[in-house]
Structures are given as structure tokens and as C-alpha cells.
Design a protein that fits this description.
The complex is a heterodimer. Chain A is an alpha+beta fold. Chain A folds into three domains: 7-49; 117-246, Jelly Rolls; 253-330, Phage tail protein beta-alpha-beta fold (3-Layer(bab) Sandwich). Chain A contains nine helices and 18 strands. In chain A, α1 (7-14) crosses α3 (36-49). Chain B is mainly alpha-helical. Chain B folds into two domains: 30-118, RNA polymerase sigma factor, region 2, helix turn helix motif (Rna Polymerase Sigma Factor, Chain: A, Orthogonal Bundle), CATH 1.10.1740.10; 127-222, Winged helix-like DNA-binding domain superfamily/Winged helix DNA-binding domain (Arc Repressor Mutant, subunit A). Chain B is built from eleven helices and no strands. The longest helix of chain B is centred in the last third of the chain and has 34 residues, at 188-221. Classes of the chains: A alpha+beta, B mainly alpha. The interface between A and B is large, with 56 and 78 residues.
């Protein structure tokens, strides 16, 4: 198919300056639908060359974005070809939008139940869970863990934690990432490793046993991330201050009597973490305020019981025996 | 806000084959220049939409204003077309080029608007409305859309100078009667007279256009 019309002739015609012969030729050419795409392409070029006015494109775009955000989810299945409709046909789809919004609002409370399974522990209770992928979670007292019912086989495994949990993540052959979220602003991402997360109102602590983890957090609108090494302790205070340091070093059993343990504003939570991880003593804190208290100084402790005694004396707290271990409580 | 440096495919004449050569595959060139838009839509519709908007909003407004002769109306009309384009996910279904789709939509909307504003005197209009909705544009429509905006252009050119100036200030610039009166140092009453004269003239000139359009459309659909 050849074009009987040149771009130049079309431009003359569009400007209203074509001779009757040219005009007739162009009109014949336009009547062939196969020429429409070319016509529109040239029409665009012509408009670009002779703009009637320059609209404030940025302002218009801002307005458009606002409008789109208000009615986010686009509705599909409409006629793809432009048809002659009145300029504003709100009435046509607005009822559906309202219906959809109402339905959505009704479904939101149910959504979490449908898509997530939530494990809870009560005060003083500890649960050992094994997730579908083999990851082991020890859910500590008064905590909850939300695990997706479906979608654990997508590219990330994501769980939501409130309270405290010790994770031992299995490395998947396809390097599927495992993400522990504690809030919208804070998440820990791993491939395979062992770590403990403490996410309560007062603070969020992350202690890494082995492997490597990545922590993503946002401060205001800024997004940050950092990588933790084994033995690191990350603390996020309620005020949003982030603090990364090494956990107090626990010397090997044979050297303990000589060197002792040095604490420097070490939180009770940390000491308990060390008792569990290094001394194998099952000890839990039930009071959040107690977990925040700190101790300082150099202590000699050959074994777990001696360290525990030091803790009880220094802080004037009491212990309570449970089926699985010990509970630390404020006096 | 991210900024993009993109070659505007519409303003590099050397990339564009001359008509005689273009005759072989006219559609391919459109597709080529819009390839990046299609890719963007595939990856992230919102991003694709942003690019599409930034690319075509201005020329489409310029085209729409040739019909409606009002900045505000032209922008509203083009925005509405873009909005519907995104909302109905038309970008998934368009088989022609995006610009072809958008031009068709804008020209349709401009036509509809003009006919509502100036075509009410036609008694047949009420019935043709039903024929129009839901149909694809007929082969003649491009010619008639062109005739329509050329007729509007002629009609406004024919107005006496002062009348035209008042009309453009009011309609195109969307200025208030009082503002125009102050600016041109005439009374508000005179402004009113000029504008009603201009509108009357426009209505008369367009009446012939409507007659042709309406006949053709009836022929086509009946």
C-alpha cells in the first residue's frame, strides 16, 4: 500500500490551506482505515510543530496522580476501543466502586484470619514451632507470630512477630529469603541462620547467633539497612534510635574463673540471652520493664547458677520455676 | 519526582521515513517509537502511564483546543481520556498505537462536547446519541473531525477583530467578563454583546457541519 498523500500535503490540509484537489486526495486517503495510524502519527508531529498553547503538564499530572490514588485499583473488562460517550460518565461505574469499597471494608477484619495463621503464647508460656519450610521458631512468653497460610513458597518467606522469638532458619536450595517483620519500619532478612528477635513496645532487640542477617528499617521517610555479624546486638529504642554493638563476650568454660564477665550497661534481656545461648539455662523474663533494666560491672561466674545468683542479688528480683525452665520476675 | 531523558519520537524528522517509503509499513514506525512505552507498561503500568502522559499530554491538549477553543476544557477533556485509559486498563487491549488510540478518543470527546454545546438546535441529535454510543468510529469520521475543527477555526477567524479578541479572552483564557472589560477598556455590557455574537456565529457555521455529520452517521448506522 502506497501513500498517495505526502506528509507535507497533510500538514497543508490540516492548516486549512490545501487546494480543493489536495483536499480531495487527502480525504480519500483518510477514508481508508489502514491509513489511520499514519494519519495520527503525522497529526502528532503537526501538533508538536504548531502547539496552540502549552498546558501546565506537571500540574495536570499531579492532579491525575491524586485522582488515580483515590480510585486505585483499576477496573478491567471495559471496551478497549474509545467510544463516543458523554464527557463525564461518573454515574456508570461509581455504584460499583462504592459496592467494592464496602465489600473490601467488610473483608478487612477477616483477611488476616484467612491468609495468616497466628501462633500465640500466653504469659510465661513458650512454644516451639516448626514452619512449613523447616524453620524452627521458639516463641517466647506473651508473643505472637503471624505466618502466611499460602505464599510461603513465593520468593520470600515473611512472618510477622510481636514479642520475642528465636529463629533457626533453614537455608533453602533456591536461596529463598526469610523475612521477620516486627513493624512497617523494621524487618530482618536472612537466608539461613540463627537469631533472636525481641520486639516489644519499649524496644526491639536483635541478637545474631550465627550466619549473617540484614536489617531493614526506616526512619521517617528514609530507608536504611545494615548487616549484622554473629555476636552483634542491635537495639532499636522506642524513640527510634538504633544502636549496634557486640554482645558481652563469654569466655570458654575453662577460662571463666580467671576472666569473669564484663557487663557495661547490659540489659537484663541480654544477660538472659547469654544465659540461654552460652550456658544452656532456660530462663525467660516476663516483665518488659525488667528486660530493660541494665547492669554494669565485672562478675565472676563459673556456671549458669552463679551468674543467675549475681543477677538476682544485684537486681533484687525473684525467680520462679516452671515446667520448662525459670522465669525472672520483679520482686 | 523521577525525570527521564527520552527521545521524543515525534520531533525527529530524520528518523521518520518519507511518505513514499513509509508506505510499505506505516504501522511499524508507530510501534517502534512507542516500544519503550509498551515495555514500561509491561513492567509497571503506573510508570508506563506517567511516561505516556508526559509524552502526549501537551500535543493532545493542543489538538483538543482546536475544537473546543478553551484551555480549561481542552485540558479537562484530555485528562479524562488519560484517566479512562488507565482506569479501564486500555493499555492492555490497544491493538493500534497508543497515540492513535488517544487521538481517536480525544477527537471523539471533543466532538461530543461541541455537539452538546453548539448542536442543541438539531432535533435529530437526541436520536443520534443512541446510535453513537458503543460504536467504533466509522471510516469517514477522521475526515469529519478534521472538517469540524477547520470549520471552528474558520468561524472564529471570520469574527471582527475586537469581537474575536473578546471571545478568545473569555473562552480560551477563561477570563471573567469584568477582567476583559478592564483589560480592553470597554464596558462589561459590550463584552457580553461580543461574546453572544461570537457564539451565535459559531453556532450558525457549525450547523452545516452538524447536518453533514448527522446525515452520514445516520446513513452509516441505520
Amino acid at each position: 500500500m502506497n501513500h498517495s498523500v505526502s506528509k507535507h500535503t497533510l500538514f497543508t490540509y490540516l492548516a486549512g490551506q490545501a487546494t480543493p484537489i489536495e483536499r480531495q486526495t487527502v480525504e480519500e486517503w483518510l477514508k481508508n482505515p489502514a491509513n489511520t495510524p499514519t494519519f495520527h502519527e503525522w497529526l502528532l508531529e503537526w501538533e508538536m510543530r504548531s502547539l496552540q498553547f502549552v498546558p501546565d503538564q506537571e500540574a495536570a499530572f499531579e492532579k491525575m496522580v491524586q485522582r488515580l490514588d483515590q480510585t486505585e485499583k483499576p477496573e478491567a473488562d471495559e471496551e478497549p476501543m474509545p467510544v463516543r460517550k458523554p464527557l463525564f460518565f461518573w454515574g456508570g461505574w461509581k455504584p460499583y466502586l462504592v459496592a467494592a469499597t464496602v465489600l473490601l471494608a467488610l473483608l478487612i477484619p477477616l483477611r488476616n484470619k484467612l491468609f495468616y495463621q497466628t501462633h500465640y503464647t500466653t504469659y510465661g508460656e513458650t512454644k516451639t514451632l516448626r514452619l512449613e519450610d523447616g524453620t524452627g521458631v521458639v516463641l517466647k512468653s506473651n508473643s505472637s507470630l503471624q505466618v502466611p497460610r499460602f505464599g510461603f513458597y513465593t520468593n520470600i518467606r515473611e512472618v510477622l512477630l510481636t514479642g520475642e522469638g528465636r529463629f533457626s532458619v533453614t537455608h533453602q536450595p533456591d536461596h529463598q529469603r526469610f523475612v521477620v517483620k516486627t513493624s512497617d519500619q523494621f524487618q530482618i532478612e536472612v537466608l539461613g541462620t540463627e537469631f533472636t528477635v525481641y520486639a516489644r513496645k519499649q524496644s526491639t532487640n536483635v541478637a545474631l547467633g550465627r550466619g549473617k542477617i540484614r536489617v531493614d528499617y526506616s526512619r521517617g521517610a528514609d530507608k536504611h539497612h545494615l548487616t549484622m555479624k554473629p555476636g552483634d546486638l542491635l537495639t532499636l529504642s522506642q524513640q527510634g534510635n538504633l544502636h549496634l554493638r557486640q554482645l558481652p563476650t563469654v569466655p570458654p568454660a575453662e577460662a571463666r574463673s580467671k576472666t569473669g564477665l564484663t557487663f557495661k550497661e547490659t540489659s537484663v534481656w541480654e544477660v538472659c540471652y547469654l544465659l540461654r545461648e552460652k550456658f544452656g539455662l532456660k530462663v525467660e523474663i516476663v516483665d518488659d520493664s525488667l528486660a530493660q533494666r541494665t547492669i554494669s560491672g565485672n562478675y565472676h561466674a563459673d556456671n549458669a547458677d552463679e551468674l543467675l545468683d549475681v543477677l538476682i542479688e544485684t537486681l533484687e528480683i525473684k525467680t520462679e520455676k516452671t515446667g520448662t525452665g525459670l522465669l525472672l520476675k520483679n520482686n | 519526582m523521577a525525570t527521564f531523558t527520552l527521545l521524543n519520537p515525534s520531533i525527529s524528522p530524520e528518523n521518520r521515513p518519507t511518505p513514499s517509503i513509509a508506505g510499505e509499513k506505516p504501522v511499524t514506525t508507530v510501534y517502534d517509537s512507542e516500544l519503550f512505552l509498551r515495555k514500561a507498561f509491561e513492567q509497571e503500568p503506573r510508570k508506563g502511564f506517567e511516561l505516556l502522559f508526559r509524552h502526549y499530554y501537551t500535543p493532545l491538549c493542543s489538538h483538543a483546543v482546536r475544537f473546543v477553543y478553551s484551555r480549561q476544557l481542552a485540558e479537562d477533556l484530555v485528562s479524562e481520556v488519560f484517566y479512562q485509559f488507565y482506569r479501564t486498563e486500555a493499555y492492555r487491549k490497544v491493538h493500534s498505537s497508543f497515540i492513535s488510540y488517544l487521538f481517536t478518543a480525544v477527537r471523539n470527546e471533543a466532538y461530543t462536547h461541541l455537539r452538546r454545546e453548539f448542536g442543541k438546535t438539531d432535533s435529530i441529535d437526541a436520536t443520534t446519541e443512541n446510535h453513537l454510543t458503543g460504536h467504533q468510529p466509522q471510516p469517514d469520521s477522521e475526515v469529519h473531525f478534521n472538517n469540524l475543527f477547520l470549520a471552528v477555526n474558520d468561524a472564529i477567524s471570520q469574527l471582527p477583530a475586537q469581537c474575536r479578541r473578546v471571545f478568545l479572552l473569555s473562552r480560551f483564557e477563561n477570563k471573567k467578563y469584568e477582567e476583559i472589560a478592564t483589560e480592553l477598556q470597554i464596558s462589561p455590557r459590550t463584552v457580553e454583546v461580543h461574546i453572544s455574537k461570537a457564539l451565535k456565529h459559531l453556532r450558525q457555521t457549525l450547523r452545516e457541519e452538524w447536518a453533514v455529520l448527522v446525515c452520514l452517521i445516520n446513513l452509516f448506522f441505520c
